[in-house]
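Q: Predict the bound structure with pyridoxal-5'-phosphate.
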Amino acid sequence: MQLHSRTADIQISGIRKFTELVKRYPDAISLTIGQPHFPTPQHIREAAQRAIAEGYTVYTPNRGELALRQAVAAYYQRLLGHDYQPDSEILVTVGATHALDIAMRTLLQPGDEVIVPAPAYPGYEGIVTLMGAKTVYVDTARDGFRLTPEALAGALSARSKILILASPANPTGVQYSRADVEALASVLRGTDVWVISDEIYAELSFAKEPVTSIATVDGMRERTVVIQGLSKSHSMTGWRIGFTLAPANLTDEFVKVLQYSVTCASSVSQHAALEAMRHGADDARPMREAYRRNRDRVVETFRRLGIPLVEPTGAFYAFPHIAAALGMDSQTLCDRLLSEARVAIIPGDAFGPHGEGYARLSYACDEGVLDEALRRIETFVQSRM
Ligand code: PLP
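A: Predicted complex:
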């Protein structure tokens, strides 16, 4: 079968591969999941039901319903201080994944380089590869999983086109401070590098300092694409609603790509999203509180075991150096933890070359489930140390 060589080049993500493997162990506890364990809030589900009953079942404008874009502008203005025009600078996409895809398909030429602080969410590399561009992973492990200005300067080349910055990040849960993003911005000024600021976990932050978008740093708005979405903040992974917030001239180009790939996001989901943006400012709070408590349990367990862990301050992931601490590679550790202790976590190498030696566990689950999983991990680790 003759396929496009770039399609043949990309692989199914290591996360998906491992979640398939878990299905063979029905008694295993899975800490692999990348979505909140809360249902979509009732008021949002009711809004979707009303939208169906009232006949909002037809195409919307390519950019998304104007009322939704207006509500999005107001929502992220309040949350992060973003200042984007609903008519020209905001698009409604099919999840954050589609927003990332549109941004990169618009910006990247074959041979361009995309700088990605690593370990990283595996969703970026596939898009970069499909564009014939190259992912340049920068190892952040020695810097508490934060890209430093020095490391960024070292990674820049004449081919650098995009820096992807996620805060809070998947798989580490680490968040950048205002000082961090200002320092990165000062390296980027004077270059032609764009930033894709992936802010999908912005509402699931437990850091004392609020999340700062690099787009709000002086001189950065004109070269940043903000990626947002409702998958995590409103527990709406299946509704597939995301957004791009970007300068008007770039957004005009995004619309062409969006039009020829999906026409528009689902009309019913857009009505659900409108309700979330108008009346759901507090929807993330119970999740944030539950995940902060779960984070504390995870940190406490790994401290007790003496396994290095950078304390996560957002999202719902922890990324301990557990395989290295036990003298195993990540795949072996996760295979054995699953078959011997019946706990599933994701091997660190699923998050790029610098994830080896680590594993990602998601604590988006009930406290009792997490406690039992941590007890099993503790017994497994103690029997091997
Ligand atoms: N960005 C990051 C960092 C993620 O972790 C995810 C999903 O796990 C996405 C983007 C994609 O989100 P969506 O489900 O809205 O496409």
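A: The first strand starts at residue 29 and ends at 30.
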